[in-house]
Amino acid sequence: MIKPDQVEAMIKSELPDAQIQVQDLTGGGDHYQVTVVSSLFEGKGRVQQHQMVYKAVQQAMSTEAIHALALKTYTPTTWATATSQ
Amino acid sequence: MILWAHRLFDQRLLTAITSITHQTMTTDTHSRIANLVQQNKILVFMKGSKLMPQCGFSNNVVQILNTLGVPYETVDVLSDPEIRQGVKEYSNWPTIPQVYINGEFVGGSDILIELYQNGELQQMVEVALAS
After folding, report:
1. Contacting residues for B69 by C-beta, under 8 A, at least 6 apart
2. What is the pTM of this model?
3. Which value does ipTM take for this structure?
């Protein structure tokens, strides 16, 4: 079981400028939904963006401490577009 | 209590399997995956089958592709531990499902949903099937 702020800290270690929203979907600390906004995603495809986040939580995922991670990634620009609609 | 013990056992077993298969992502497994990916225009590595997905995320992908009404093939990773671990390394992607279109890794459930909602998936699939 991983706490939401631990998930956030792991992602921050890889993407220091990231704005992160962590949601525990079941309350069990192993199914998370995470939204990440970072300028480091700029110029990268979706797959690459998700890979960057996965890299940050790799350890927790390979041990199944985090069983499921629903992911949404945005650059500051795409975030602005998404939230203005 | 029983559930907890079951989960713990599950997790240990999984860790054991992972550590075994981790060392043995053989060239054979690698080429099996490469062949599958090359030979199917739309391919989904998933848990369970089209008719009986064994995981909500795999089910998402199946439902989307069914809605598009396109032909696609699936590989059940639950029945093949080597592929299950191997495809994670092959794609550098830690989760199942994984979708390949025209030999290219497209993403998992989240990306498929996004691509479907913004219309990109329909285009990618049309291009793939026309080629």
Report:
1. none
2. 0.82
3. 0.82
